[in-house]
Amino acid sequence: MDDMEKWPEIEKAATEKRRELVLQGPGIDQRVSCLGGLTPSLYSLTLLNYLEVSQCPSLTEIHDDIRHLTNLQSLVLCRNRLASIPDVIGSLRSLKVLDLSVNNLRVLPEGIAQLRELNTLNVSCNSLEVLPEGLSQCTKLSTINLSKNRITGFPADLYSERLDLLSTLVAADNAIEELNGDIHKLAALKVLDLSNNKLSEIPSDLSDCAKLKEINFKGNKLSDKRLEKMVNGCQTKSILDYLRSKAKVRQAEDGGDVDSGRTTDKKKRQQQRKKKEKAADEQDEVEELNKMVVRILHVSDAPTAITVKVSAEVKDVRPYLVCCVVRGMNLKSGNALKRFLVAQTKLHDDLCGKRTTATIATHDVQLLKCPLVYDVKPPTQLKIVPLGRKEMTAVELIRHLQLEADELRKQKKRQNVTGLHKYLQLLQGKSFYPCLVDAEGHVISFPPITNSEKTKIKKTTKELFLEVTSGTSLQTCKDVMDALITKMAELNKFTAEHQEEAGSDEEGGENPQRPVTSSETSSELIIQQVRTVDQDGNLKVVYPSKTDLCKDVSNLTVIW
Q: Which stretches are tagged as biased composition: Basic residues (predicted)?
């Protein structure tokens, strides 16, 4: 218990059965230094699926007990001074993201090859000289970052057809001397960065990577000076075309009776390459048409990032909250805003169980007065300007809604009512109501009933603050937010493709001649992380984390 008291973050994670834990910064580093490592109690949090321990220069090793955290999907151990990682890391069979960047690692454990679910491996900024054998067994790998190490070459099994999902390979600033021609076996490769290495040749087989879109070989002293000039100009298409032409020249030189068998093999390979290219081009066209892109802006990269403080009193009322900021959502064109509001209502009715499991609220960021506090108030003290109404207390609002509901029943001669009236029973018996309060003390959200007219979104809204609250679980909030963002990406793509006439700039002022801007024809969304903290400033949750937005949506691309 004494150990827990020294690590309140771990005690809180244990008592609240949390699935995410972030330990970082000087305070954590001081405790690590005093203890000689991380507290053993950390390894008892077996429910964790996201663990981050970062910015702790005193952390030099991870205990073998890490093997107990078998539910981990993301393990982030960056910006420490780790000299080794235990081989038992291979026991974390659910791990999808492993970030060991900016440490003092000289070798990686062979156990990494046992991580069959791994899709992202970041070991950049270490002192690695070799990679472990067996990475081809991690068949779900899509991104590998090895930049800024001392690697001299890739293991043979990295050039494996089994890695058919590997799309990004970054190994800049190493000492790599040779790129094997078997690189063409990485059929999904789209990005290859081998800048600032010791390559003298680029194999012509690289041109057989049909999906390759971006290559970087700058800073290598190539023997072919013409190719080196192209490389320094980062002309991906020109480089690949040149490599193909070189392959054809070699093929012609190898022709004739002396080696006709070899020539025939090369012709077959060329035909196969052309077929692959054609199929890849067709597939890329389809992917490009259907692609929805969501780019995540890390909280540390946003100087004006919003933080929401959560009071202890919400625990017994409506304890769970996740938030984020969305940019790039085009609400101005045609019926874009209406489609978004309809989609939100549908999510409330379906995934949110008619607001019984969760509630969504949206706000115009430009109208927010930060910082924000998620709190509770007695019904008589909770004042809000509900959407489309004048300011009133929660008691008055509920009385109004009940009277409206009774009138509707009389008029329509039925028991069921629509609109906000159908959510009134969710507050029955509550002594306190949950609310989101701005820096001026105004209530801007009163879940699950309404949010405020003060922060209402309009066609002119450029940034949206999204909140999802629940009395069920944190994961429920995250699932709903994931679904909402995915739906927003779909709607934004639809709006960009159809390019309807823009509606009024303000409510009441038409501007039909206004030209459509490039931001309105782009469907990319930028999601800025928002942290929720307790009253002492300790992190409760950050959304999105790397375990969020991971649902199997084939045409949704999430860029971190």
A: 265-277
